[in-house]
Amino acid sequence: MTPQHGIRYTLVSPDRFTPYSGMLPGLIAGHYSHDQVHIDLERLCQWAGVNLIKASVDAVDADANKITTSLGQDLSYTLLSLDTGSTPNTSVPGVSEFAVPVKPVSSFWQRWQQEFAGASPKSRTAGSGGQTIAVVGGGAGSVEIILAMAWASQHDQAFTGSPSFLLISKTETILPGYPEKVRTVARQACLDLGVEIHESVTVSRVDSNRLTTDAGAVIETDAVFWCAQASAPRWPGQGGIVCNEQGFVKVNNCLQSESHPAIFAAGDIAHMTQSPVPKAGVYAVRQAPFLFDNIQAMLRGESLVRYTPQTRFLSILALGDKRAVGCKGKLSFHGRWAWWFKNRIDHSFMQQFRLLPRKSS
Predict the structure, then answer these.
(1) Left if phi > 0, otherwise alpha if psi is -120 to 50, otherwise beta: which for 240?
(2) Preceding peptide of 101 cis, ω within 30°
(3) Closest CA to 233 of 213, 244, 248, 217
(4) 27: left (phi > 0), else alpha (psi -120 to 50), else beta?
(5) HEC string of 238-300?
(6) Which of the residues in the chain have pLDDT under 50?
(7) Neighbours of 170 (CB within 10 A)
(8) CB 3.0-4.6 Å disulfide test: which of 3, 11, 243, 256 passes with 237?
(9) 198 within 8 A of 187, measured Cβ to Cβ
């Protein structure tokens, strides 16, 4: 958005509208509209003078400085910045065929609309009584999504009945790593909305109408949403970029590839070898200004700056209705004011992409 002279910028993204994941639960619950949650990349790129290619990346040749898109285009680059996120972990048999992955977020939202939220004739009966909807995963994203679904099922006219909701977590407790007070509030929210929690349960197989656990138990379901730990796309490693054992791009504290200096990576696709951090959007947001500075410095031949991950950060989880629970360090809080505070932060972030400043002639 502040381009250097003589540099051509290209953004490769599969969709014109990209969702802000922090507001996705509010979109599912019906608190936000589609436009409030999505960034219009076409408008943004046109304003910024960036070439937008609506495609995904199928391959990279890191030694030749070239990527190949899903449209069959070969694009050469001087610098490459990767922030494509993670992909669903489909190693469990049946996940690819019978589960709806929560990532990528854009695909998940389309499936939710088509099957459960009134966007098609099929969805008008999807919420009928007797159905069971399962979300597999016990982290923050899983909890927020299933609470939003449960809230929508009780307040969205597209649902003609009251489906049952199951939250299935392989960890001993939902929200591992969060303070006990946060877990207690989240559990009560699940209880209030009729969400049944199953902990220490590992799904070993997914079929069209049931889940099988590693203990041999069978759980009958009508729909499965897969929010378990995601994995990395294969094409970075296949293209010669050094990755860790899980396939995430290994970068130094300057967010620069350890094998190819002309490649940067941030967000979920990156693995910081010197300062490993969990896969969480809060780190991606904080990485952004360092990524910007280092791309600019690289183009100018200047020294790069180091990003040091924060050890404490504010985390706020939506609880389906317009309430939220959050924490920072050992401090925990919850209530309607917490949702209002999160809502204000999220809207302020999105306003940056809507209220574009007028360019001087």
Answers:
(1) left
(2) no
(3) 248
(4) alpha
(5) HCCCCECCCCCEEECCCCEECCCCCEEECHHHEEECCCCCCCCHHHHHHHHHHHHHHHHHHHH
(6) 118-128
(7) 17
(8) 243
(9) no
Residue type, 167: L
For the record, the structure tokens of 215 come out as 């203990």
Those residues whose C-beta lies under 8 Å from the C-beta of residue 82, and which sit 6 or more positions away, are 236, 249, 263, 264, 265, 266, 269, 270
Give me 277's structure tokens: 């951090």
CA distance 164 to 193: 10
Q: What angle do CA 138, 195, 125 make, to 5 degrees?
A: 115
Q: Which residues pair with 5 in a beta bridge?
A: none
The DSSP 8-state label assigned to residue 217 in this structure reads -
pTM for the model stands at 0.90
Residue 9 and residue 249: Cα distance in Å, rounded?
A: 22
pLDDT at 122: 45
For 245-281, letters b (16+ CB in 10 Å) and e give: eebbbbbbbbbbbbebeebbbbbbbbbbeeeebebee
Rounded Cα–Cα distance for residues 317 and 211 (Å): 27
Residue 123: the pLDDT is 43
| Distance of alpha carbon 228 from alpha carbon 101, whole angstroms | 9
- Separation of alpha carbons 1 and 220, rounded Å: 50
Q: Give the length of the chain.
A: 361
